[in-house]
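Below is how a single chain appears once it has passed through the pipeline. First comes the sequence as given, then the structure the pipeline wrote out for it. We keep one example in the README because the format questions we get most often are answered faster by looking than by reading.
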Amino acid sequence: MKEFMLLIRNLGDSKSTFSPAQDLAFLKACQVYVEGLKSNGNLVSAQPLIREGKMISGFNGSWNEGPYSETAEVIVGYYHIMAQDLDEAIAIAKGNPEFAYTTTARIEVRPIKMKEESTSYVYPKGK
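Resulting structure:
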């Protein structure tokens, strides 16, 4: 199995019009999705991201701190998953509840580099 990162992108206010019942239904759908990934052995970790923060840029002590997003779209969460290949990772991403509850969701599916081929350095894994 290979490791992939699913970066969940959506409008920062994509769920602001949800009623309490819609919000609860969405959260329950996310729980079902996560539990399914766990039971299938695909899930390494997953977390939603709070829509606050800073974007840091600069160099040599000349740093800029600004809003983390200059657009309406933000990364709202991530899933670190295991899949046989990119096609399976994409299929897993397509099942994400963001697509069922909003029309503005996008998911970036990216393989995780485990080793630098030129130096043979193997990146450490989390816990």
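The CA atoms of residues 67 and 119 lie 36 Å apart.

See the next section for the split statistics.
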